[in-house]
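Example for tutorial group B:
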């Protein structure tokens, strides 16, 4: 079953054994204080590693100001690097491949997590909806502080430093999170970016920070070990853009010129899947729209099931498919798909925060028998 998913493909010079990728999934279970990957995180990733399979980690804040939810892991302190090293080693022991997702949330945060500072953003425009506070409460988002022009190169530099830290932890590569309404998408989209300097206004200007970051991260890792995640037509975290086709056509072509190893697209039908069950109707299929302008590996995510993922690979619409919720509930997802075995159902109540329940206690096929 789903035969097309079980053939090798390439990310840069790396050869992957199958096309079932673990999507980046925030789980809010890093050790406190310090947001440090700990032993239950090692167990979780070890369980989900497979020979030649790609894991993309949960979003990991590149700096203290980049954090938007409690207990998400960072990649800016030496303790965090050590913590991640243990995760990487566990995945490598199973001959898996693991990329770290570099994350800055921008305005999708709360001052209680930021030493009392207001969240930062391209413009002083509040996001709709509710933030997580440092103590897991939900409060309306605060109006963020608009970044000064002079501060932006320092943020680019934080990405470079975070990439260096990821390299030191032994990661095979990194993915730049430029999706889902977080800082980089806030710059991309006109609804959250009303700047009048070289980082706002025209499409070229709104894309500038993303392209600057991609360039410095490529310097650290080599472009063949760098991917990027985008969500054209996405509406997560109050995101909206009046002309996505023109914007993403430009951005993706520029990223192609940098020769990034892969482009990871979130299908808009699944926009906001982290918050609620969604299947938005009458929305474009991003992988179909942008396939033609992306020369390297294309990964897509969002409401894929084994059969639809296999069909998309077979049709050459995508090279690989990332699974989020199904990977939460099925530590041995590739094996189950290969065998056509039944899948465990996920429990949304345990997605965020807590301990091993709903995290490392989903059974493998062997454990069910
Ligand atoms: C997510 N998603 C997500 N995306 C991302 O780029 N970085 C992240 O840290 C997270 N965190 C996260 C947590 C949880 C609990 C969920 C459910 C989702 C989005 C995820 O990677 C994926 O795009 C969606 O879940 C849609 O794919 P599935 O679940 O339909 O396979």
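The residue assignment follows.
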């Amino acid at each position: 079953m789903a035969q097309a998913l079980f053939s090798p493909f390439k990310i840069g010079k790396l050869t992957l054994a199958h096309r079932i990728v673990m999507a980046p999934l925030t789980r809010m279970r890093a050790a406190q204080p310090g947001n440090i990957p700990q032993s239950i995180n090692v167990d979780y990733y070890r369980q989900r590693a497979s020979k030649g399979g790609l894991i993309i980690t949960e979003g990991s804040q590149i700096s203290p100001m980049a954090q938007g939810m409690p207990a998400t892991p960072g990649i800016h302190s030496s303790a965090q690097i050590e913590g991640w090293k243990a995760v990487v080693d566990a995945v490598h022991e199973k001959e898996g491949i693991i990329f770290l997702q570099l994350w800055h949330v921008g305005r999708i945060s709360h001052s209680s997590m930021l030493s009392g500072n207001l969240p930062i953003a391209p413009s002083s425009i509040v996001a709709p909806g509710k933030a997580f506070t440092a103590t897991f409460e939900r409060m309306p988002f605060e109006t963020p502080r608009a970044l000064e022009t002079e501060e932006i190169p320092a943020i680019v530099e934080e990405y470079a430093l975070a990439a260096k830290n990821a390299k030191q932890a032994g990661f095979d590569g990194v993915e730049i999170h430029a999706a889902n309404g977080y800082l980089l998408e806030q710059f991309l989209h006109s609804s959250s970016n009303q700047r009048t300097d070289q980082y706002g206004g025209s499409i070229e200007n709104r894309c500038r920070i993303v392209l600057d970051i991609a360039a410095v991260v490529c310097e650290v890792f080599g472009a063949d070990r760098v991917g990027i995640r985008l969500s054209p037509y996405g509406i997560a975290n109050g995101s909206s853009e009046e002309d996505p086709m023109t914007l993403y056509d430009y951005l993706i072509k520029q990223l192609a010129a940098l020769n990034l190893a892969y482009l990871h697209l979130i299908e808009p039908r699944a926009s906001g899947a982290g918050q609620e069950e969604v299947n938005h109707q009458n929305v474009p299929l991003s992988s179909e729209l942008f396939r033609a302008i992306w020369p390297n590996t294309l990964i897509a995510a969002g409401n894929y099931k084994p059969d639809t993922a296999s069909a998309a690979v077979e049709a050459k619409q995508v090279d690989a498919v990332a699974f989020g919720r199904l990977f939460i509930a099925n530590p041995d997802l590739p094996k189950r798909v290969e065998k056509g075995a039944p899948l465990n159902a996920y429990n949304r109540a345990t997605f965020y925060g807590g301990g091993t329940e709903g995290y490392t206690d989903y059974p493998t096929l062997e454990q069910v028998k």
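The pocket of FNR is lined by residues 23-26, 58-59, 101, 177, 179-180, 229, 266, 270, 273-274, 301-304, 323-326, 351 (CB under 6 Å). Compare this with the pattern of hydrophobic and polar residues in the output above.
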